[in-house]
Description:
- By secondary structure, this protein is α+β, with helices and mostly antiparallel strands.
- It has one domain (64-213): CATH 2.40.50.140.
- It has six helices and five strands, in the order αααβββααββα.
- It has helices spanning 2-29, 64-69, 71-74, 132-143, 150-158, 207-213, and strands at residues 77-88, 107-111, 123-126, 173-183, 189-204.
- β4 and β5 form a beta hairpin.
- It is elongated, with a radius of gyration of 40 Å.
- The mean pLDDT is 83.
Amino acid sequence: MIRLSRMVCAMALLGLTLVQGCDKAAEAKVQVEKLPAITPSLPGVPTLPPPPHPTQYSDQSYSVYGVRRQLRKTIDTDVSVTGYIAKVYAPPECPPKQKCPLPPAPHIWLSDVQGETDEMKLLLVAGYAENQASIDEAIKNAKKGKKPTEEELKEQTEMGILPIPIDFFAGAKVKVTGRFSYVSGSGFQSSEGVLGYGGHQTLEPAPQAEAAAK
Length: 214
């Protein structure tokens, strides 16, 4: 029995020796190659260009850029937008004794810079007059010095009738207050928003208006 135990132990030691020998032989055959150090090369932090115009001015009025940038906040709310009148709609002339389609209601386009021609940077303003004839009549009365009386103004205000602007000329800088929505009360619509007229303040008269006044 003792002899058998010694034989088992001897065989176990022999097996362990063989395993260790194989491991050493395997280690001797494996050559570890050290890779060169890798220095990560990351691009620099990009410098974002500043916004083309302020979102809001010191009087809390929006720029054309700003009222659209804050669309989720400004849509379907009353806002004030400061900008230049880029274009004034002029209805086409109708030849005498000819029936012409009814032209759209008067409207203008505001921009953040004077003389803007990019249609994508213009904001449509409508709802300040029913037709061009009413504007022409208001300008004619103003030149004659005719002004509505206090009673007439009060009555018009109670009826929600606003004075028709007579100084909407291209190049003027104005601050227009009104409802900013996708569809105006006068039927104009735009995915970029339309400003329904509710009043205005002329900050810088157009050269045309100044020349007419002189």
